[in-house]
Amino acid sequence: MERGEREERVVVKGEGKVMDVSLKELSGMLEEFAKERDWEKYHSPRNLLLAMVGEVGELSEIFMWKGEVARGLPNWKESEKEHLGEELSDVLLYLIRLADICDIDLADAATRKIEKNAVKYPATIIRE
Ligand SMILES: Nc1ccn([C@H]2C[C@H](O)[C@@H](COP(=O)(O)OP(=O)(O)OP(=O)(O)O)O2)c(=O)n1
User: Fold this and answer.
1) Which residues does 94 contact at the CB level (< 8 Å), separation at least 6?
2) Coil, strand, or helix at residue 91?
3) N or C terminus: which one in the chain shows less Cβ crowding within 10 Å?
4) From the CA of 128, how far away is ligand 1's center (Å)?
5) Closest ligand 1 atom to the C-alpha of 94?
6) Domain containing residue 115: CATH number
7) What is the pLDDT of residues 55-104, one digit of tens each?
């Protein structure tokens, strides 16, 4: 996919927000990011896994010592929420890159896993 073509497909904005992007598209952007910097040599499965775990640590720091927080984070400053979004993204992006480098189709695997979970935990039994 050409760069211009991807920008047109991914960066469909409404009120300044990206409306829709697929895991495959994010994976393509990450591949391009690594290629442009000659960083593919660093993106081994082990390095990516360690990088992702490091980012999970940074994500955990945001919640550290805060106690339980309400859903939607109503009392958080915008800057805190923005920081949270960045750390969540770092975890997601390393996960997507790790899956890609391991030749795992993450969208397919995750969809299958949700289906498997539904069989393991049928809603009718849980509701009883
Ligand atoms: N070898 C690398 C280094 C970085 N990244 C990308 C993936 C992450 O989304 C982001 C991580 O960048 P940093 O290591 O600078 O981490 P932070 O953004 O969390 O910065 P800091 O640790 O200073 O808060 O950059 C990457 O793909 N490959």
Assistant:
1) 48, 51, 52, 55
2) helix
3) C
4) 46
5) 7
6) 1.10.287.1080
7) 999 999 999 999 999 999 999 999 999 999 999 999 999 999 999 999 99
